[in-house]
Amino acid sequence: MGDEAKIFSLSEVSEHNQAHDCWIVINGKVYNVTKFLEDHPGGDDVLLSSTGKDATDDFEDVGHSESAREMMEQYYVGEIDPTTIPKKVKYTPPKQPHYNQDKTSEFIIKILQFLVPLAILGLAVGIRIYTKSG
């Protein structure tokens, strides 16, 4: 690496997205991995799919070895301008209605929905038996 690192914008790096010219961004650094495409253990598709964006999360999720990290130095071409990388949007789940954990009122309603018709049926049968015997 030289004393003055060249600064690239994400759009400049994004132009290098082919098998014959492939650049990726990892941890704020730009790497020209064109010569490494054929040797990459995960295949060239993995690297090609990481072009045009900050590939740091993809790189870290795989859990690369220390030797892989050291090998990256030979492909270093400069730094990325951090203002050109889109900010990550934090996911906020949609608002849900309040969840009634004990469901006591719902439980009572269900019991009543069962017992009231049963009581009416029992009353009708009782009246029928009483009026027939008398």
Outline of this structure?
The chain is an alpha+beta fold and 134 residues long. Helix content is 40%, strand content 14%.
Amino-to-carboxy terminus distance = 110 Å
Order of neighbouring strands in the sheet with most strands = 1-5-4-3-2
Q: What's the helical proportion of residues? A: 25-40%
Biggest sheet architecture = 5 strands, mixed
Poorly predicted residue ranges: none
Task: Provide an overview of this structure.
This protein has 134 residues and is of the alpha+beta class. Helix content is 40%, strand content 14%. It contains five helices and five strands. The protein has helices at residues 10-14, 44-48, 56-62, 66-71, 104-133; strands at residues 7-8, 17-18, 21-26, 29-32, 76-80. Strands 1-5-4-3-2 form a five-stranded mixed beta sheet. The radius of gyration is 34 Å and the shape is rod-shaped. The termini are far apart. One of its GO terms (cellular component) is endoplasmic reticulum membrane. Residues 5-81 form the Cytochrome b5 heme-binding domain. Belongs to the cytochrome b5 family.
